[in-house]
Amino acid sequence: MARHAQPSAPKSLSRRSKAVGGLALTTLVGTALWAWPASGDDHNGLADGKQPAPKAASSPDAAPKAPAPKAAPDPASGLLRAIPGLSDTVRKQIPENARQVLVVSGRDGNSFESRVILYTRATAADEWRPGRAWDAHNAAHGWTDDHHYGDLRSPEGVYTLTDAGGRLPAPDGTKLPYDHNRDFVAHGTGVEGEPLAGAFDYVIAINYNRVPGTSPLDQQRPNGAFKGGGVWLHVDHGGPTQGCVSLKPDAMRDLLRTLDPALHPVIVMGPSGR
């Protein structure tokens, strides 16, 4: 999040939609978030120039052949059996009912530059379809799997996305519960001294150390204040954040129109190549 005084919880939350029930969130501790896919050898090549053993002649009593495996998705179709760039450990932490996964991939462990892609699928049995990719900023000092207040690092992990809000009204088509509230104001300047005006015009709460189903302004910290909180997706202000992920206004509006509680969206965030 950008450098600013923590907003106090408003006395009342205006235009609050129906809250989503508390969804469990998962964090990753001490595990590598990212693993680039190995260049698997899927061929039937011949080692050392040897010829394959001849096939046994078929007979009426031979056991029936096993069904052929399902063909891999056609790359030209844009479909993927698994979200790329994630380790098996991370993939297993994505809830089975998630149909939308927002992947935030940091340039490296100490960088504040990221790439964001939203993957969607129709059912749990379907392949993933990648959407648009956006440039983004994360925390000034990069990433950590043990986030603490003030460390200027973004928390790695897999978190649910259930609540949104902002100083501006919700874009038409917004599906997440949205708190339109004048208290979404970023005070002071950013980490590099840049102005913060408009940074909280639109925000989506990342369910790190917060209570799902509440306004992003809610100050409850289930794991204690020392573990930080108020980690959001919000409007980019041209520099690194204190812990949030920031995107251009158009990208935030697109996400607010697309993320759907019925599809159980989650965010997977961390550095590339770890």
UniProtKB/TrEMBL annotation:
Region (Disordered): 43-80
Keywords in alphabetical order: Cell shape, Cell wall biogenesis/degradation, Peptidoglycan synthesis
Active-site residues (renumbered): 234 (proton donor/acceptor), 244 (nucleophile)
Superkingdom field: Bacteria
Compositional bias annotation for Low complexity: 52-65
Pathway recorded for this protein: Cell wall biogenesis; peptidoglycan biosynthesis
Signal sequence segment: none
GO molecular function: transferase activity
Domain L,D-TPase catalytic: 114-269
Entries under InterPro entries matching the protein: LD_TPept_cat_dom
Pfam families assigned to the protein according to its UniProt record, in alphabetical order: YkuD
GO biological process: cell wall organization; peptidoglycan biosynthetic process; regulation of cell shape
PANTHER family, per the entry: BLR0621 PROTEIN
Name of the protein in question: L,D-TPase catalytic domain-containing protein
Organism annotation: Streptomyces gilvosporeus
